[in-house]
Automatic annotation (TrEMBL), chains A, B:
PROSITE patterns listed in its UniProt record: HTH_TETR_2
Lineage: Bacteria, Pseudomonadati, Pseudomonadota, Alphaproteobacteria, Rhodobacterales
Protein name: Transcriptional regulator, TetR family
Residue ranges of domain HTH tetR-type in the record: 9-69
Keyword Transcription: yes
DNA-binding region: 32-51
Pfam annotation, one family: TetR_N
GO MF annotation terms: DNA-binding transcription factor activity; transcription cis-regulatory region binding
InterPro entries: Homeodomain-like_sf, HTH-type_TetR-like_transc_reg, HTH_TetR, Tet_transcr_reg_TetR-rel_C_sf
Keywords: DNA-binding, Transcription, Transcription regulation
Length: 199, 199
DNA sequence: TCAGGCAAACTCACTGGTTAGTATACATAG
DNA sequence: CTATGTATACTAACCAGTGAGTTTGCCTGA
């Protein structure tokens, strides 16, 4: 790859791309600013021209993952066969599939929150919290569409299973946890669909 | 504090105590070996006399939390009123209570796994995995006692909700997630108790 | 059309401080 | 006298962030 080929993308974008790969693969504190700059093919000073600090870069890294991640879950949901319960389970089954990739390292938002737990005011923490909340709200909206009772509670139970799946799969390196979480999620949603029909 | 008062506990024990507090509060990579040595009131060389590396110390830190943590969950379960479903919910309610403490920083095992996700062979990862598995097995054993069907699957669903509660509470700093997880866990167990009675 | 200016984007070389880990020596207890 | 434990002082690498200066591309005015 030539220098010109690299420069096809503007520097700021290349920095975010590099940060994405390195922070997700290695962790925040394990990756130096120098390493990100080198991977982006620029000098550290240029990085500091575009981002005012490492913390700022970390926040931008998470921001850049927000929409793509949400979109992915929505696609998994929408393109699944069956009723809402099946579609919810599909998210977990796709997640299990992803987790089997050797480069899978859990949820970047959860891992960042775990690593920065001692800095509750860190900008990245707020971005992570908002991202997770958006997913929970989107789920609740799907349940409202289906006129399920207490959509917020069901959505919350699903995200609990989802983040549980992320965590346990990272600890055990076993994608079967997401499949079990999917079964639990499906049966929770199914129970509420049945309740609605009877009523 | 005199030197003698410090020496009441052997150095090794004081190092583990210091590592416990610092690694849990601040994170693994955020805490230097110097900081642990200083908190323990010894020099770094003494620390390296007792532990061969920082990685070794991290593994010992997690090992030291294994039994106390399991014991705590068992106590919460056993001292709760009601049937098995209520006792399972009690674990989540006590967890929510703990999480409201300002010094609460999630589950040390999960946070360590998140931070060391790029080092799958790290000794601490194995200890974390075994700890979580022990809790899952202990739960399954409780369900076997009650002659519930498929105790392993129920136990796994409960730990998924539990680790989900740990994660979401860390991200949102909101103990309500553990309470919702408790409701979900209780109704899963209750459903299986009812199924058993009908049969 | 082109000189001149200017700001954005960039590089090289550096600072002060921190990191994990160690060489050497000294103390104390059995 | 030997094994265990401790301290001082060090290394070599690495860290986030910066000072000073250079290139690039675009706009302006004659």
């Amino acid at each position: 790859m030539t220098v010109n080929a690299k420069k096809a993308k503007p520097a700021r974008e290349r920095i975010i791309d590099a940060a994405n790969k390195l922070f997700y693969q290695e962790g925040i504190r394990a990756v130096s600013v120098d390493a990100v700059a080198e991977k982006a093919g620029i000098t550290k000073k240029t990085l500091y021209y575009h981002f005012k600090s490492k913390d700022d870069l970390v926040a931008e890294y998470l921001s850049s993952r927000d929409q793509p991640n949400l979109k992915l879950f929505e696609t998994w949901f929408e393109s699944a066969e069956g009723d809402t319960a099946d579609k919810v389970e599909a998210i977990f089954l796709e997640l299990a599939k992803s987790a089997r990739h050797p480069k899978w390292k859990g949820c970047g938002f959860l891992r960042t929150a775990a690593e920065l737990a001692n800095l509750p005011g860190h900008p990245a923490m707020k971005i992570g919290s908002e991202h997770k909340k958006k997913f929970e709200d989107w789920l609740a909206k799907q349940f409202i569409k289906n006129q399920l009772d207490d959509p917020a509670a069901i959505a919350r139970q699903i995200v609990l299973l989802m983040d549980g799946a992320f965590s346990t799969m990272l600890v055990h390196r076993d994608a079967a946890y997401a499949e079990e979480a999917g079964r639990a999620a499906k049966s929770i949603v199914r129970a509420h669909i049945d309740a609605e029909i009877q009523h």
